[in-house]
C-alpha cells in the first residue's frame, strides 16, 4: 500500500522544486526534511553501534526507523501492531509506566508478568511463552528497577515467544555488552528500541531509533506520520554520532564511575539499601530517613519516590560529580553516619 505522503522522493540539485507547497524564501528550514539526510543519520547510528559494541552488526538503513524518542516508538508499535480486537500485550512488571498508560487509552488488554529475584532480573519464561499475548514488552535494563533482565531469560523469550518481542534498550549504553541488537537478523519477531536521551544526553531533541527486520520497519513506517525526523535534529545527531564519539564515551564513563562510587558508598551503610544499577539512575532507601524524597527536596534536590513490590525507594538520576558530592554529604549528614565504618 502507498504511504499517505510521498516522503521518499529524491531531488536533484538543479531541479526547480514546486511540488510540496514549500516557501521558497523562509529561513534555514523552509524545505521539508530530506530523506537522504535521514539515510545518512541511519548509517551514522549503525556505525556507532558497530563501533561501540565492537561488532559488525550487518544492519542497514532498512533496519532502522527514527522516532521522537523511545517513548514515541512504544506508542507507534501499539498503534501499528495491536489494533486487532483480540490483541493482548504482556509487560514485565514493574515496567516503564507509559506502556500501561497507552494500552489503557487504546483499550488493549494487558497482562503483567512479575519480575522476580533479589535484583528483579528474572521472569517466569514459561508463563510468558504460554500467554496468549501477541506483543511482549521487555525493558532491558529496566526502569524502574535499574537492572538488566537475565540474558538466558531474555534469549529464551525471544526464541520461543509466539508474537512480537519488543526490547526497550533506552539505557543499554550504560552496559553495552548486554545489547541484543544483532539478534534482529535472526529473529523476525524482535524489535529493539534505542533512545538518544540517556547516554547521548539529547533528551531535549526527542530522538530514538527502532531497530528490526525490514518488513517490520516498513509496517511501522506506514503508520508513522511523515517527516518525524526534522532537519535540525537529523543533522545535529549525524554530527554527534560521527564527530563526538570520544566525548560521548568520556561522559558515559564519568556517569558510570559516579554511579558505582555512589553505590559502593551507600550499599550496606548504616540503614541504607540500594539496588545494583545498569542504568544512569540509582534506587536507594534508608531506614533512618523515612521521607527521603521530602528530605532531599528540603535541600533543593529533586528525586522521585516509587514503590517496587510494596517497598518504597527513591530514584536518583546520576548527576555531575559536584552534584553527586553534595548529595552524598547530605545523605551522610541526614542519616548521621560515617561512611568510613
Ligand atoms: C525504559 C524507558 N524507555 C523509554 C524512555 C523514553 O525515552 P525517550 O526520551 O527516548 O522517549 C524512558 C525514559 O525515561 C525509559 O525509562
- C-alpha geometry: globular
Q: How do the strands of the widest beta sheet line up side by side? A: 1-8-7-6-5-2-3-4
Number of strands: 12
Query: What is the SS-derived class?
Result: alpha/beta
How do the SSEs run, as a string of H and E? HEHEHEEHEHEEEHHHEEHEEH
Name the ligand types: pyridoxal-5'-phosphate
The largest pleated sheet is described as: 8 strands, mixed
What percent of residues are in strands?
15-25%
Radius of gyration: 22 Å
Compute the separation of the termini in Å.
68 Å
Would you give an account of this structure?
The chain has 341 residues and is an alpha/beta fold. Helix content is 36%, strand content 17%. The protein is built from ten helices and twelve strands. It has helices spanning 35-53, 69-81, 97-105, 125-130, 151-160, 214-223, 231-243, 245-266, 292-298, 321-335; strands at 64-67, 89-93, 110-116, 122-123, 135-139, 164-168, 190-195, 208-211, 272-274, 281-286, 304-308, 311-317. An eight-stranded mixed sheet has the order 1-8-7-6-5-2-3-4, with helices on both faces. It has a four-stranded antiparallel sheet with strand order 9-10-12-11, covered by helices on one side. Helix 1 (35-53) runs parallel beside helix 7 and helix 2 packs parallel to helix 3 (97-105). The N and C termini lie far apart (68 Å). The model has no long low-confidence stretch (mean pLDDT 94). It binds pyridoxal-5'-phosphate (PLP).
Give the key terms.
four-stranded antiparallel sheet, 12 strands, binds pyridoxal-5'-phosphate, eight-stranded mixed sheet, alpha/beta, 341 residues
